[in-house]
Design a protein that fits this description.
Length: 487
């Protein structure tokens, strides 16, 4: 019984913690004082999201402290109101993922109809958190060149991140396994934890990332490299906390395509003539990556208008990558396809006889076995195997001169492309039930990659419910399921 009681107390303590460490949101905390430095209790404090108009409220305690947890990241305005003081308004507040911002408020004597507005940016020095790391914000995600637009490639911008699989980068060919092979501050490979909208986004068996979201659907992410909180006890390396974009009161979206084609590529300076084998200056390259995003309030004509309450954000992306590689091989010449092996020779031009297996018998002159050669080295049609003939129908004909006229070696040249077709789907719904309750549902999905020899992909679903209670209590519930598949 004592152990059960301690476990329950531990759960309650974690639930009462003001800012959950694994949340993708942010929070604001601080103290409220007057011009003389005295603490001011019972001050109404409201944080309003600029893009959605959602408000998050708190009231300063007896010692003048306040805390507003679980505020979605982005631009926020903070308002403080109390009798006998001017209204305090702080603008240009930009909250980042998993940030606990300290913002102290100084009230001036006056009436509530008077307003003191502060527009200076809040210093970005984090004095409320001991963890080390950095945030890769939306501007860098959108503006920095991404070879293949694998958003997690930007993790390498953070000090202390050491990728292991360097050759896997580029043109969407980096695999989930290749990306997961990285060290953060000297930690073990596959020892990192990746969060997506508050849910775990790693495969538990070997710590590999499950879902790679669409780059244009990612708002920002934070890489924590050291000094992790106890909530991240399942990680022996670092933590990557990703937040996808949410809808706002305005309809917004994007439409894009990234193209690479060998037609646009300059030829090698020394390639004066076309390749005598392929007839091309450059190897074949076809790369098309296109997609769209759309977000805004949920509106059902004549039924529901979700402005200020329910928002959606969806995105879809597909890329098609095709490269041509030079492959040479050996296929049967026309004569051998008809069973005629009378010209079959080795590399020195010596005749290679074919023996009839049906004539196998014991050697009358000694040990072992002997067989008779097939007359003329020509196999009659009644001896052809039907299955072998069906297989032969799918073998190509020789199309180039062989490098050895006796053996017909490398008499076939192929420039067949190796296509890769893959897509990414992101769906996110945010809903505000009331002043204290909100929820989100996110479903990122990367369907199986289709190519000649294998396929990989992943999908997941994450949901979260948040409830603000008494000033010192805040509850968040996260649930998620994800799957990685391949062949």
């Amino acid at each position: 019984m004592p152990r059960i009681g301690l476990a329950i107390c531990g759960v309650l303590i974690l639930a009462a913690f003001q800012l959950a460490a694994q949340t993708p949101n942010a929070g604001i905390t601080g103290t409220v004082t007057d011009a003389g430095g005295a603490r001011v209790p019972n001050v109404d404090i409201v944080a309003r999201k600029v893009d959605t108009g959602l408000t998050f409220r708190a009231k300063s305690s007896e010692d003048g402290t306040y805390a507003i947890p679980a505020i979605p990241i982005g631009a926020v305005e903070l308002t403080a109101t109390a009798q006998g003081f001017k209204q305090f308004v702080r603008k240009n507040i930009l909250l980042e993922v998993n940030q606990r911002m300290r913002l102290d408020i100084v009230l001036e004597l006056g009436t509530v109809t008077e307003t003191v507005t502060v527009t200076a940016e809040v210093p970005r020095i984090d004095i409320e958190d001991s963890a080390l790391g950095a945030v890769v914000e939306q501007e860098r995600i959108e503006q920095l060149p991404l070879n293949g637009r694998h958003v997690f490639s930007l993790v390498q911008l953070v000090a202390g991140v050491q990728p292991i699989d360097r050759d896997a980068d580029g043109f969407a060919e980096i695999t989930n396994q290749g990306f997961s092979q990285m060290r953060i501050n000297g930690g073990p490979v596959y020892g990192n934890q990746i969060m997506l909208d508050g849910g775990v986004n790693t495969v538990p068996v070997h710590g590999e990332i499950s879902v790679v979201p669409q780059a244009d659907a990612v708002r920002e992410f934070k890489v924590e490299t050291n000094g992790l909180k106890a909530e991240y006890g399942q990680s022996s390396g670092g933590v990557i906390n990703v937040v996808t974009k949410s809808g706002s009161n305005r309809i917004n979206g994007s439409l894009y395509e990234f193209v690479r084609n060998d037609f646009f590529d300059a030829r090698n300076f020394f390639a004066v003539d076309k390749d005598p084998v392929t007839g091309r200056y450059n190897p074949m390259l076809r790369y098309n990556q296109y997609g769209l995003t759309l977000g805004g309030p949920v509106i059902l004509p004549k039924l529901y208008r979700g402005s200020g309450r329910t928002f959606f954000y969806v995105g879809y992306e597909q890329w098609r990558h095709k490269t041509g590689s030079l492959n040479r091989g050996t296929v049967p010449p026309p004569r051998e396809r008809q069973g005629d092996f009378s010209q079959t020779r080795n590399g020195l031009g010596q005749f290679i006889p074919i023996y009839d297996p049906a004539t196998t018998r014991a050697n009358p002159s000694g040990s072992g076995w002997v067989r008779d050669p097939i007359p003329g080295n020509i196999i009659p049609p009644n001896r052809w195997d039907p299955l072998a003939m069906r297989v032969l129908e799918f073998m190509p004909q020789p199309n180039v001169p062989p490098i050895n006229i006796y053996t017909n070696t490398n008499n076939f040249l192929s420039l067949a492309a190796a296509p890769v077709v893959q897509g990414a789907l992101n769906v996110k719904i945010d809903h505000r039930f009331g002043p204290k309750d909100s929820a989100l549902f996110a479903q990122p999905q990367r369907p199986r990659r289709r190519r000649l020899w294998n396929g990989t992909g992943g999908s997941g679903a994450f949901c979260a419910q948040r409830q603000a209670g008494q000033p010192q209590f805040h509850r968040e519930l996260h649930a998620g399921v994800h799957a990685a598949h391949g062949q």
